[in-house]
Amino acid sequence: MVNMNDTQKMLRAIINGQSSFRQEVSSKIDKLDKKLEGRIDGLESRIDQVDKNLTERMDKIGKQLAYLEDDTPTREEYDHLEERVDKIEQKVTPIL
């Protein structure tokens, strides 16, 4: 039969093992946290920069598209333009 003193020794060994395991895992997590701390901050700033560049690029493309749309004739203007070209061709042809 196991006496109380042996039980206490076994319990103490288990607790000590768990405690040392906890300290080891905690120190490794702290080291990993220190390693990643600068990288995560740097990554956030790079993502912000990419987002800013992308937004500026999309704004520029949007403006170009709006200007292009303003410069293009509507369907009615295009149809009328064809009539005007035909009239000019008729005027120029007899001269030649």
From TrEMBL:
Organism phylogeny: Bacteria, Candidatus Daviesiibacteriota
The name this protein goes by in its record: t-SNARE coiled-coil homology domain-containing protein
